[in-house]
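note to self: dont lose this again. the chain is below, predicted strucutre after it. 139 aa total, dont forget to put it in the shared folder this time
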Amino acid sequence: MQVLPSERAKAGQPSRLSFYNALFAGTILTASGLALLYIVFGGAFMTRFMPTGRPSTYDLVVGALAWTFALTAPAGFGLVGLARLATAYERWRARRPRLRQWFDSAARSATTMSSRPTSACPSPTGTCPSSSSARSAPR
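---
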């Protein structure tokens, strides 16, 4: 039977290229969203589309498209950019080396400490009928 090897360096681990791709795209999209936010609301972009007097059909259509762009584009670019940055963070976390030996030994010692009984009898009164007969038996 033929076995197809993985193209990744380690199976289940994202590549460095995918991490940097997500980081670059997220940074560019977030910066673009902030720049659009400044241009639209900080600059005089929307005053160009405020008609004076009686607007024509062309003025109404262009104004509606400009307002649609102004209200949705900065938020869209910002949200998609933040989503890509979150993806980059998840890929960075997946690429970090794990300390499995330390976690395994810590978990093992924690379970052995918690599995030790606090008393010889699980009864809430502390007296067990089987424990008294076990103590009187010769050893």
